[in-house]
Amino acid sequence: KQWYQRRVAITAGASTNENLLGVIADVCKLESSSDARSQILLEYYFHTIQFAKSKGMNYAQTSSLFTIMKLVHSMCASTSYNNNKETFAFFKQLLVKHSLQRPPYSVGIFSVEQVQAITDYALTTYFRHFDMYKYAFTPKVRVDISFHYDGIPETPEPLPQAEQVDVTEVQAPLEEKEPEEEILAAEPESEDIKALRELIQVAMGSELKQLQIRLEKIINDQDAKLSRQVEALEESIGIKPGSKSPGSKKRK
């Protein structure tokens, strides 16, 4: 939902930073103070409102900026895969639609100076920490690996939850059996089976290690690519690498 001007007016009436945080939490339904994601979003929205105030934006401009940054974050968290380039292109598209007076395609809410300031702010805050936001808000990918070896029967799949047998129901009939029906002890494994088991364990360990190395290489390559993209964007607009983020100032 977009932040309408009346909601921005409510935040403008907050006299202190603590009151502003409370208003944002109430309006955005961020009720759980112990939830890490809610706290991250609360800080993100708080600094967005503070930036709008520092630039003297009116209610319409503050509402539009808040909505743009909210939609950008939603696109970032929409997939577990790297979409930094697509998210930044989406951000620029939204910004252009709110900076040119061409109804009904776009509306001129922000001035040229404000567009430049908003771009600098987004690059030095959200997109600089893009990987951290994605790690915190995107669903984790789980990979299930199975192996098949010739000559060895496949392990049967586990029963569905509804078909699992209750242990207490199985134990009751066993207790009623006569002593002569006791279960025979399992025969010890032969040397060939032990050797085959050790060979399988060594092969699985080697394949898992190789898979881990490939995954780490892919992750490192993606991080390096993202860093180069962010540095290139910063250089294109004249921001020096390592400059302090406007959103990282301490609240009084």
Summarize the structure.
This protein is mainly alpha-helical. 58% of the residues lie in helices and 0% in strands.
The helix/strand class is: mainly alpha
Taking the sheet with the most strands, its summary is: none
What letter string, H or E per element, gives the SSE order?
HHHHHHHHH
Assembly category: single chain
Low-pLDDT segments, ≥5 res: 179-185, 245-252
Number of helices: 9
Strand proportion, as a percent range, falls in under 5%
Explain this structure to me?
With 252 residues, this protein is an all-alpha fold. Helix content is 58%, strand content 0%. It is built from nine helices and no strands. The longest helix has 46 residues, at 191-236. The radius of gyration is 29 Å and the shape is elongated.
Topology:
Layout: H1 5-12, H2 17-27, H3 36-54, H4 59-76, H5 84-97, H6 112-124, H7 130-137, H8 167-176, H9 191-236
Search tags:
252 residues; 58% helix; disordered C terminus
